[in-house]
Design goal:
Bound molecules: zinc ion
Shape: globular
Radius of gyration: 28 Å
Largest sheet: 8 strands, mixed
Helix content: 40-55%
Number of strands: 31
Number of helices: 28
Structural class: alpha+beta
Strand order of the largest sheet: 6-5-9-3-2-12-15-14
Oligomer: single chain
Distance between the termini: 19 Å
Strand content: 15-25%
Length: 874
């Protein structure tokens, strides 16, 4: 057992900083075995602080303090404790000169300054800067930085930091220096520097006001051909942010660097974004359509942070959603404008409902603005990001696009250069629109997914239809009682002939109902017959909605609902009902109605093919688990498999026809028409191989051999791997590896195809992958692709009834926690949902968590996840 337990930090304890730092002058000397960081801090007492503190307390972790001077004189009465440097009785204004020695090569946590494939790079969000030098490492201390980097010229010809380059030159012993100055005050978490032997790809962007911005991407030489898509995405994002939000870029230069070893996806450091290679590099031969799509949205996301995050930042880490929720909403809007808004919304909601709803229902549930944390790295969650974005989307729905834009303009104007709270964001929206969002603010403070129960009555005599909606929200840790939320429900009513019915005197056929109390009734009059309600269009609120639609009504909505999202959702509801009825023994045979609905979709000309592909996909096992108490994964999986086999066999001829009609030829382009066609054609291929169809097998083999792009090649590989064709599977896996073993990002995909396979991805398979020469424990992407994909997506084998999957995960977490706690804590997430499962799975998962808890040297990160999920700490 550990000697002392890590302490939680509470939002209620927030105090303004006792001191402010106006200017930071850094000189960083890089050597092979260490780095010397000389920092000069211009410090003054904070006039807003009432604590009268005389001592300056700076954060610092794993730093060797080499020298400390105050106004040019050595300091002798300082104290160095674990995590802090205290300088007693400091004056009102002073300079502090600090030199620290650090060891980037030994930094396996990948927080602060570290080495990745021979280059130096940084990751300072949330609390990495304190691993570089002593500092007031909190986001409400904003300073201007000047950064001089010195290193060997031959090994590190490229030296980058935030801002604009202002000075450079040769030094003695073959070394050189480059000095960067960032004129915009920023918190320390946005500091970045990079040193390496990198190639530069240049482009430029002319802003609305006519300034030419120098765009530069830095990658290792082997990745030189993979930059085009990211640069194109960046330019689109820059233009879009000017047009939709009126936000122009501010520095003269914008840089993007790709790094192989990175704990996160990407980081929005001011003027110097650092990306995980897998989230930025792409070529048609190595990246799928899905990767192209993801890169476009992540590049935009990080760029958008320049305003929503950097110019206006968070006061403290409880406000993380201030920048993340708003920026995810902005990147979702951007992606919707670049492609199909409905398909984009479907993909997003699908993820939200399976993964974020599970988080909300589990022991780690927390509000969008958490009240406390032990390790902030554990709160980069789907709740803060994705639910946070849904909350901003609801404000957008309630205010309408024009008022929302006025609100965001006011927010940026009012708080530029400040560190603020989610409350400040909502206040700006209120002040611009004159709407009262007092009750709406509960979305930030109350955890859990609200549930809406909808009932209706129709009075044929008066032609009045009444909808009654009741809201409730289950208890979550620390919050047993919930006040009602302010919920926008976008809806319409549909007549039996498919006509959209007018809802008011203005003949509108769609409206937004606003729920504020526990229960509301809404009346619609002048109707000739009982309508079919279409509720929560576009998923207008992150809630679970329960209305007793019949299967026939769902079939009707699948083809007639004017809202594309609800057409898809009706199909999902129908399929869920059919699958769970089989699993629970209410049906003995698969209802033929979904098959007929899919047949119509496949044979109706002119439909959006990307939509058809989404509609053909059965609800995931993860979503079915989320909808089931005491989930028995094997039984759910069995029922889902039975329905899938029935559908695919019944539609075999139509699927073959889809392959013939819709597969795009010619050269690859990432454009909506081609992406949709590949998506539909590859969905058909997957279904054909799943049923062991001979023609499907031949087509998969041919596509695997002949594909000129990774989307088709990987789809063919997956189809063969998840099929009964065992020899073809082995051959294809071997061939794919032989062709691509030199490319780490493609090898990551090769790992994931196996670790995520419901057919072959069992514990033996993933154990073998860990022993593969291409696997690297120190590389977070490889770890995620093998262990993370197995535990997070391959539910069939992870929840193997003998508990082997759970034990496997426990062993790997234990190993990883010794050197990269952020990753070990992330990987533990699937175990935290243990209460959702059937008793035999539940006991096995909780047993692994208890074993982890009892380890002697558990990291703070993992300690918080394990104890909270066992219900042992607040
Ligand atoms: Zn972000």
């Amino acid at each position: 057992m550990r000697a002392e337990q890590p302490q939680a930090v509470h939002l209620a304890d927030y105090r303004v900083p006792a001191f402010l730092i106006d200017h930071v002058d850094l000189r960083i000397e890089l050597f092979e075995d260490c780095a010397l960081v000389h920092s000069r801090l211009n410090i003054r007492r904070n006039p807003a602080d009432e604590s009268q503190a005389r001592d300056l307390v700076l954060n610092g972790e794993e730093l060797g303090l080499e020298s400390l001077m105050l106004d040019g004189r050595p300091v002798e009465n300082h104290r160095v404790d674990e995590g802090f440097l205290t300088v007693p009785s400091v004056p009102e204004h002073f300079h502090l000169d600090v030199t620290t020695r650090i060891h980037p090569r030994d930094n396996t946590r990948l927080e602060g300054l570290y080495q990745s494939s021979g280059m130096f790079c940084t990751q300072c969000e949330a609390e990495g800067f304190r691993r570089i030098t002593y500092f007031l490492d909190r986001p409400d201390v904003m300073a201007c930085y000047r950064t001089r980097i010195e290193a060997d010229r031959e090994a590190y010809p490229v030296l980058l930091a935030n801002g604009n380059p202002v000075d450079w030159g040769e030094l003695e012993d073959g070394r050189h220096q480059v000095t960067w100055e960032d004129p915009y005050p920023k918190p320390s978490y946005l500091f970045a520097m990079v040193a390496g032997d990198l190639v530069e790809k240049r482009d430029e962007f002319v802003t609305g006001s006519g300034r030419t911005i120098d765009l530069r991407m830095y990658v290792e030489a082997r990745n030189e051909a993979k930059c085009e898509h990211a640069l194109a995405s960046l330019k689109k994002a820059m233009a879009w942010d000017e047009e939709v939000y009126g936000r122009e870029y501010d520095l003269d230069i914008f840089m993007v660097v790709a790094v192989d070893d990175f704990n996160m996806g990407a980081m929005e450091n001011k003027g110097l974004n650092i990306f995980n290679s897998s989230c930025v590099l792409a070529s048609p031969e190595t990246a799928t359509d899905a990767a192209y799509d993801r890169i476009e949205s992540i590049v935009a996301h990080e760029y958008f942070h320049n305003w929503s995050g950097n110019r206006v930042t968070c006061r403290d880490w409880f406000q993380l959603s201030l920048k993340e929720g708003f920026t995810v909403f902005r990147d979702n809007q951007f992606s919707a404008d670049m492609g199909s808004p409905t398909v984009q919304r479907i993909d997003h909601v699908n993820m939200l409902r399976t993964a974020q709803f599970a988080e909300d229902a589990g022991p780690m549930a927390h509000p969008v603005r958490p009240d406390s944390y032990i390790e902030i790295a554990n709160f980069y969650t789907l709740t803060v990001y994705e639910k946070g974005a849904e909350v901003v989307r609801m404000i957008h729905t309630l205010l309408g696009p024009d008022m929302f834009r006025e609100g965001s303009d006011l927010y940026f104007a009012r708080h530029d250069g400040q560190a603020v709270t989610t409350d400040d964001f909502v206040s700006a929206m209120e002040d611009a629109s004159s709407r009262d969002l007092t009750q709406f603010r509960r979305w930030y403070g109350q955890a859990g997914t609200p549930e809406l129960r909808v009932t209706d009555t129709f009075d044929a005599e008066s032609g009045t239809y009444t909808l009654t909606i009741r809201q409730s929200c289950p208890a979550t840790p620390g919050q047993s009682h919930k006040e009602p939320f302010h919920i926008p429900v976008r809806m319409g009513l549909i007549a039996s002939d498919g006509e959209a019915l007018p809802l008011d005197a203005e003949q509108n056929t769609e409206t937004v109902l606003e729920l504020t109390g526990d229960e509301h009734s809404f009346q619609f009059s002048g109707l000739a017959e009982r309508p079919v309600p279409s509720l929560l269009r576009g998923f207008s609120a992150p809630v679970k909605l329960d209305y007793p639609w019949t299967r026939d009504q769902l079939m009707f909505l699948m083809s007639r609902d004017p809202d594309g999202f609800n057409r898809w959702d009706a199909g999902q509801k129908l399929a869920v009902d059919v699958i769970l009825s089989i699993q629970q023994g209410r049906d003995t045979e698969v209802d033929p109605r979904p098959v007929e609905a899919y047949r119509t979709l496949l044979t109706t000309p002119g439909l959006d093919r990307a939509m058809v592909a989404r509609m053909l996909a059965l609800p995931s096992t993860a979503w079915l688990i989320e909808l089931t108490d005491e989930a028995d994964v094997a039984a759910i999986d069995g029922a889902r498999h039975q329905v899938e086999q029935t559908v695919a066999r019944a539609l075999r001829d139509e699927l073959v026809q889809v392959r013939a009609d819709h597969h795009p030829g010619g050269s690859y382009a990432f454009e909506p028409g081609q992406v949709a066609a590949r998506s539909l054609s590859n969905s058909a291929l997957t279904l054909l191989t799943r049923i062991g169809d001979e023609q499907g097998r031949e087509q998969a083999l041919a596509q695997f051999e002949q594909a000129t792009n990774m989307t088709d090649r990987l789809a063919a590989l997956k189809a063969l791997v998840d099929s009964p064709f065992s020899q073809e599977r082995e051959d294809a896996l071997a061939r794919f590896h032989a062709d691509w073993h030199h490319d780490p990002q493609v090898v990551e995909q090769w790992f994931a195809v196996q670790s995520g396979s419901p057919w072959i991805g069992n514990v033996n398979c993933v154990t073998e992958l860990l022993a593969h020469p291409a696997f690297d424990w120190k590389n977070p992407n490889k770890v995620r692709m093998v262990i993370g994909v197995f535990a997070g997506r391959n539910l069939t084998h992870f929840h193997s009834p003998d508990g082997s999957g759970h034990r496997f995960l426990g062993e790997q977490i234990r190993r990883l926690d010794a050197f990269n706690p952020q990753i070990s804590a992330q990987l533990a997430q699937p175990l935290t949902r243990w209460r959702q499962y059937a008793p035999h799975l539940r006991d096995s998962m909780a047993g692994i968590l208890r074993e982890l808890r009892d380890l002697p040297d558990l990291s703070r990160d993992l300690y918080e996840v394990v104890t909270k999920s066992l219900g042992e700490s607040g």
